[in-house]
TrEMBL record:
This is Mutant NPM1 protein. It comes from the Eukaryota.
Amino acid sequence: AIQDLARGLEEVSLRK
């Protein structure tokens, strides 16, 4: 739940 959201945000930030 929270971990999935934090990971998704980190991945999107790197994919920027």
